[in-house]
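Example 460.
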Amino acid sequence: MSLRLRLTIIYSVLTGGILLLLGVVTTVLISIALISQMDEMLARAVDKIITNIRIEPLGGPTVFLPQLNPAENIYIQIWDTQGNLISASPGLSSFKEPLDPAGLQAGETIYRDVYFSQAHLRTLSMTVVLGGHPFVVIQAATSLSWLDVTLRNLVNILIGMTLFATLLAALASWFGVGQALAPLKTVTDTALQITRADDLSRRIPYRGQDNDEVGQLIYAFNETLEQLEKLFVAQQRFLADVSHELRTPLTVIKGNADLMRRMKSVDEESLASIKDEADRLTRLVGDLLLLTQAESGKLPLDFKPVELDTLLLDISKEMHILAGGRVQLKVTEIDQIQVNGDRDRLKQVMLNLVSNAIKYTPQDGEIFLSLGKVGGQARLIVRDTGPGIPADDLPHIFERFYRAQKSRTRSKSGGFGLGLSIANWIITRHGGRIEVDSSEGQGTTFCIYLPLLKTSDSLS
Ligand code: ADP
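Predicted structure in complex with adenosine-5'-diphosphate:
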């Protein structure tokens, strides 16, 4: 069953139900109010009779039937305690039965509905007590046939109106819901078109209000499409980058191999070039594997207490050799600091930052390393006096395969633009962050912040 039909049925049933309930309550209240009016009228008539009871000095008490208002249409009977009819109103001269046989025996004041063959009466029976003994029973009655007719008409009108209103509600909700749901059809159509045409650049247009439910749904759907498109573009770019990075070393290897084959001799220079490119390929494949594992959450980290100061000194020694006197490597400040982390991965990050600094800093430049505590965190700084990173490139350097403009032209000596994205991932997984501060010609500063080792970490 369609949502439109379901909602229409729900609205119609609700409207019909509420109207029916209101109708029943109205009818019951009206009938109670009218019957209580009738009861008051009967009570007034009986009171009038009681006030007319006379005590004759010799003959005992006597009851007189007073003149009643003919417009009130009240019938009266007065019975003695032996069940003899003493007196009755003129309209009842031929009617010798009690108006309410049960009320006659009741011995108390009682209001009842009494049905004769064609008539519906409301009766009041009251036993009058004189000198401690029941004296007479007065019965007053009035016809309720007019009330029955009125209530029947009212019920018919209410049923008719309820049916009509329910029909109107059904029509209104069928069209209203249809209109409200129409944009969803557009959503479905667009979603199908996107799937069929493989075109993630499409968006769903919406002419209604942006903050209504459908507007929000379309907004969310468009956001999802935006994300999907970004991911798709990123994936395509990633594939293009990987193919590009693979092609360059492969072309060099193939070129050198062809050359040696044509020359029919083994050329040392070509062999060295082939080895360099094979090494580069190995590094690239290693980095790619690491990054894919990291992004799919399959790279396990072996968390243990790590002495960052010892690690920094080790790296400094190793990197001195790499710097080879071309640039100066100085440790300016070092605190004893322990963090909870994967030693090998943290070393990889530090090596990446320092080797970048060495790689990009020209002859006679300087690199400063420092390790300290700031705001309850470990802070490791790698600063160089190199060319700096242009402002346009700075926001992107943690992206995969991103290399600043200048580094791109030096593709052979430069890396693949994967190191910093791997480093960023590792530090984030350690609960820390990497910040970079650089401007062209002013050198570059990388800061790593890591949470200090807590006693609970070292115990676990
Ligand atoms: P790569 O392997 O190309 O060095 P990274 O991810 O480590 O890749 O670095 C990304 C880019 O950031 C580099 O290509 C380079 O342009 C820039 N970069 C990183 N470190 C420095 C630095 N110390 N000085 C200047 N540029 C840097």
